[in-house]
Amino acid sequence: MTRPRGVVVVTGSELVRGERSDLNGPFLAGELLRLGIEPARILIVGDDAAELEEALREGLRADLCLVSGGLGPTHDDRTVELLARAAGRELVVDPELEGEIERVSRGFAERLRRPYADFETGVRKQATLPDGALVIGVAGTAPGLVLETDGAVAVVLPGPPSELQRLWEPALASAPVQAVVARARVPERRVLRFYGAGESTVARALAEAGGEGDGVSATICARDFEIHVDLFAEPEARERVDWLAEELAERLEPHLFARDERRVEELVLDLCRKRELTLATAESCTGGLVAARLTSVAGSSDVFRGAVVAYANDVKAGELGVPEELLERHGAVSAEVAAAMAAGARERLGADVALAVTGVAGPGGGTPEKPVGLVYLHAEGLEGARPAELTLPGDRAAVRARATVAGLHLLRRLLSQFRHQSP
Amino acid sequence: MTRPRGVVVVTGSELVRGERSDLNGPFLAGELLRLGIEPARILIVGDDAAELEEALREGLRADLCLVSGGLGPTHDDRTVELLARAAGRELVVDPELEGEIERVSRGFAERLRRPYADFETGVRKQATLPDGALVIGVAGTAPGLVLETDGAVAVVLPGPPSELQRLWEPALASAPVQAVVARARVPERRVLRFYGAGESTVARALAEAGGEGDGVSATICARDFEIHVDLFAEPEARERVDWLAEELAERLEPHLFARDERRVEELVLDLCRKRELTLATAESCTGGLVAARLTSVAGSSDVFRGAVVAYANDVKAGELGVPEELLERHGAVSAEVAAAMAAGARERLGADVALAVTGVAGPGGGTPEKPVGLVYLHAEGLEGARPAELTLPGDRAAVRARATVAGLHLLRRLLSQFRHQSP
Fold first, then answer.
1. Which CATH architecture has domain A5-183?
2. Residue segments in chain A with a per-residue pLDDT below the cut of 70
3. Any CB–CB contact under 8 A between A397 and chain B?
4. Is A292 an 8 Å CB contact of chain B?
5. What is the pLDDT of residues B193-218, one digit of tens each?
């Protein structure tokens, strides 16, 4: 039995003009993979009718065709009309749907103080569907659809990612999509997250442990300066994939930091929470990025107290109590100042644990002794401290992003260090 | 004369598995548009040979086919081999290229302390090219290529975005690509950036001003809570596009903030720099995101002094001098506390201008009086202040991102307000 084949068609002229990076393709492809359907390709086209129709025809040659975008009320939103043509179906008005879209549009008209007549053509257009299409819900005035054709099932979803993800749920639950899913076999999945090992080191470890094949496939992906390994296995290969995951975990033990999808900032906050510790940061070159990552987690306020972004030297002195003499003798970018910043953050912000970051993010400000990319980190807690000196490659954005991730992992290591020693 | 048609083929199994959002497609599509070549579609495929070959065949039916990825030394990097097959070319070893890749690989082998023999197969593979291909440069050990086929030109570039962008330059300069470019006509481009107007308002203004057509096309794109309008015009339509840009600027004057591509944080820093003002932020719910945006700009340190991220209430009191009594009476999320935070940031961080942000980012912490999404901003300078109360939709990340952008635009407005009044 071969895996059902899935194709994602994304339409939007801003996407094909390079103005925006598409998020729906990766989301839908990930869903296909999770369901055991082969994500064969993602096709991004603009609103040119010929290009879009050709893409939809291509999509209908797969078992499942997931389409995003082009459902709006205007003439250049052509997905539904072209899908009907590609599938050889008549277009018919769905009266019930028309009533629903009319209600929403009358609300819009009222709020915008415009006559409803302005909306009427759009309402009729959005209620016109390929014969036999199943309406799975409405996003604003745009209906999501499921259409069974000869040999394929097409799912049409609105372009805004949050709407698309909301309507994907009823689409997935619909009978035609479930019939495709039933022909697939949901793979087993094992997740391993590494930090501090290169992609090639992880690839070699995987190969030496036996590698892909025999029902197991792997993705090794450098993301956010971490290495994310996902192992997928046919149901029969469960033992082999478990064994492979253990082998990898063992071979790369010093670098393994998670066996689930929690981000490092979540791990740091969880480690603090478990031990009832509070947290703060003192940041120079990262300019608040570490604090922003930590506070991106819902509920971080019970652990995170705050941060001082000390860009100017006298802010380092005034707000973090870094001695002027230290700044003069060692310079703002130094291990000594990083340590003083961390101590200052703990004291001034009343936190048990603090991370300090100071460095040269570039492009200016580098010297032969302190080049662009030189970053000092210092994590300090109740039971000790961990300093780190890094020389990071890349431009300003890369140095800042990398220093942020390195800082979060340094905090994680500091907090894990004593974990097994406490009674 | 019709525009030459361009297709982008992106290969990478992690992309088709939804693990990473592709950046190369948008970059290359944007380049096509800039050159006057129609960016017809972006095709993303994995490393399955049949899928990739079919995608390359499709690409070769366009005038220009830009290919990203699949150039590595291992057996699942198949782009070159499959391009040769799709183009009907023999594969031949390029001895000069082989020498160059060998040199690089011997360096790797030494650094990794592995025998060069481990690399030999890979070197031979990477030096094997379709007959007639032009080598335009090497990224690591991966060569970039230009190949002329019957009716099409294919450009093959490495997958890592920085390498791809570096090798795109010599590819663009190569004779075969220049021959395609010569058949295109580089469009005129006008840029308008709006804040505070909806996408549909901008679309209506454009339509009322005469709209697209007669040699002018437009993209209206909501990005980062701003509306970005790009007008493209055939060389003959220069007058019409200038007129259209003026019309749009006039109709939406209160919302227009830029006629170039500078981001709002750059505008804020430039406004400060011109008037020799220093800047600071005091952030609660945005957790450092405003500071991070401001410091993302190279050279921001001559304007930006620092920030206090005051997550805990006693940090607001201790580090920003917000009176306890104010916090008790009005609550941390209030116009009064926002104003006190801004004043505190100016005083404590020694800045002329400050922005304060306090709000309920959610998902928890909302009450009937102060629901999730309620955000108070306060921008204060030497000559006055601008407060703002917002109710923002969306999840935690959306509320934080939107509050950040709103804060930056509030600073821009405050700083622009007095611009025309100074002598």
1. 3-Layer(aba) Sandwich (3.40)
2. 1, 418-423
3. yes
4. yes
5. 999 987 778 888 999 999 988 999 88
The domain locations on chain A are: 5-183, 188-258, 264-417
Using CA atoms, how far apart are residues B84 and B129, in angstroms rounded to an integer? 8
The model's confidence at residue B423, banded by pLDDT at 50, 70 and 90, is: very low
Cβ B349–A315 below 8 Å, yes or no?
Answer: yes
DSSP for A109-136 reads: HHHHT--THHHHHHHHHHTEEETT-EEE
Q: Does B207 touch chain A (CB under 8 A)?
A: no
Ranges assigned E (strand) in A323-410: 353-359, 374-380, 385-391
Minimal CA separation from A294 to chain B, in Å: 8
Interchain pair A28, B18: CB under 8 A: yes
The CA distance from A333 to A292, in Å, is: 22
Fold for the domain defined by A264-417 = Maf protein (3.90.950)
Cα nearest neighbour of A302 on chain B: B312
- Among A2, A9, A19, most B C-beta atoms within 10 A, so best to mutate, is A19
Q: What is the DSSP string of B371-392?
A: -TTEEEEEEEETTEEEEEEEE-
The answer to whether the Cβ–Cβ distance between B29 and A41 falls below 8 Å is no
Q: Which residues from chain A sit within 8 angstroms of residue B292, using beta carbons?
A: 286-289, 292
- The ipTM estimated for the assembled molecules is 0.84
Options 3.30.70.420, 2.40.30.170, 3.30.70.2860, 3.40.190.10; CATH for B188-258 is 3.30.70.2860
pLDDT reading at B91 higher than 80:
yes
Mean of the per-residue pLDDT values of chain A: 93
The minimum CA-CA distance between B91 and chain A, rounded to whole Å, is 26
Instruction: Specify the pTM.
Output: 0.84
Cis-peptide, bond into residue B254, ω within 30° of zero: no
Provide the 8-state DSSP code for A155: E
Report the distance separating Cα B20 and Cα A27, nearest Å: 9
Residues 6+ apart with CB under 8 A from A241: A188, A190, A215, A216, A231, A232, A233
Q: Are B14 and A349 in contact (CB < 8 Å)?
A: no
